[in-house]
Amino acid sequence: MRLKVIAVCFLCSSAAAFAAEPAWELAPPDAKVLVGIDIRGLRNSSLNDSMTNTSSAQMRAQMQALTMFHVPGIELLDDIDSVFLASTGDLLQPSKTAAPGKKAGTPFLLAISGTFPDEHLRPLLKGPHPSYKGINVYRGTDANPASIAILDEHTVLIGDDKSIYRAIDRKSTGVQAQGPLFTRARELAAANEVWIVARDASGNLQKAAGPGAELASEIDGLDLGVAVRDGFNMEISLATKTEAEAQAISQLFLTQMQAAAATKLDAAKTAALWKNVKVGAEGNRMLVQVAMTKEELKENMRLMQEQRASQAASQLTSHANGTPDSPIASAQPPMNSPQPPTVSTQPAAPPKPRVVKIYGLDDQVREVPLDRRN
Q: Are residues 155 and 85 in the same domain?
């Protein structure tokens, strides 16, 4: 019995040791946006199982077609365990500083963790690569180049030069940033495969287009977590300046969701959808919650596949029958409509040469050809 307990403890500790933990020590202490994706967790999730079980032959054929075209570095997709992004820029607000002649960009650092064979990394390591503290930083050549650095055998950094240099400095010290943003990020990372924490301290959000344009600038922050380990659970929290604005945004979001559901789902499916969705406001936060069990997730994935197949079949039938929305029908004139004039495609006959006739001469009438150039 004691051996079994020890074995269970060993397995649990091993799983925790190999969990895709974000590289917290690389993030700048003044970050305003933190994003994490547990790729390994997504591969082993119920969502991935549902997508695999309900995937259509068309999807599999598309994936096989993609493998025919070699994209440099595409092999890395199978090597990645987690992705961690940090940025000091305002939420959705581009940086106001830029080098002369270059477009301004938001500073960011993307830390990709996994196990990367040299042959998979080599296609990405091109161009000038100045060394910083013994680490080569490969610079891009685009208008807004992103640099690449191999921090160690398990970490690849992508971002602007300054963000990468600072991450290398922080890695050497091992000191992790602290603060409310990082505390919240750690909470979400512990429970979700995909998470986002963003704060806009300046309150200078770019206004979005559409019905929510007037409300976009009132958002101070965003928390999002998506857990797919056993079913599907998503929570979205938008922080606003006032409680009234949180109520207004939640009502707008609810109205938009209801309108979208009404156009795509029947009454029974709409009712089933709202059993899994909650939209409301608490204080100055707009909240959205979506919760599905593993069985409900599989059923929803199946319905989505059936809907896509039905739409594709409807389009094929529409084209075959020549209905008004098909290219075949649009190419044919309606019945009893006036026909356009017929234009002959035969080449025009060359013009006959013109002549001038002179009367009253001894030999009666003389014809003189008229030179067309005159």
A: yes
The answer to whether residue 354 is domain-embedded is no
Digit-coded pLDDT (tens) for 309-364: 777 777 777 766 665 544 444 444 444 444 554 544 555 555 566 655 655 555 55
Task: Judge whether 5 lies within some domain.
Answer: no
CB contact at 8 A, 107 and 87: yes
- Domain of residue 45: give its range: 21-92+105-205+213-230
Token pair for 75: 């092999």
**Amino acid identity, position 175:** V
Tell which residue, 228, 163, 162, 236, has the closest CA to residue 197.
Answer: 236
pTM metric for this prediction: 0.67
CA distance 351 to 349: 6
Distances (CA, A) of 256 to 224, 229, 259, 261, 273: 19, 29, 5, 9, 14
Shared-domain flag, residues 60 and 171: yes
